Amino acid sequence: MPWSPETAERVRRLLADRDDVVEKRMVGGGLSFMVASRMCCGVAGDALMVRVGADAAPAALAEPHVTPMVLGGQPLDAFVLVAPEGHADDAALIAWVARGLAFVSGGR
Rounded to whole angstroms, how far apart are CA atoms 25 and 20? Predict the structure, then answer.
């Protein structure tokens, strides 16, 4: 499934001031953003993928427009998918990307 170029560009702009970001294509056609060599977030179809960590995932899944990320038929404990309605405005996108950054920086 190809990723949304618009969502990818919005995430790029948020991470543009960092020198430790690498973009990688994911199996299945998504795009991930690696920060300090750790997967932080990405775009899968039109959804935002965020690595929140297994401990924070239940709370994230209780929020509107959030579902588990599934790979090979199995849910990934540490990742969630945020539907476009959940990251439509800049403030929401910033908050979700910040959660991914907090996880990869150890501030889970």
Answer: 17
32 pairs with which residues across the strands?
24, 42
Give the domain extent around 31.
Answer: 5-104
What sign does the CA torsion over 67, 73, 79, 81 have? negative
Reading the chain (108 residues) residue by residue, the pLDDT tens digits are 578 999 999 999 999 999 999 999 987 778 999 999 999 999 999 999 999 999 999 999 999 999 999 888 889 999 999 999 999 999 999 999 999 999 999 855
pTM for the predicted model, two decimal places: 0.93
Give strand pairing partners of 76.
69
Q: Count structural domains, the chain.
A: 1
Burial letters 21-32, b for 16+ CB under 10 A, else e: beeeebeeebbb
CATH code of the domain containing 16: 3.90.1150.30
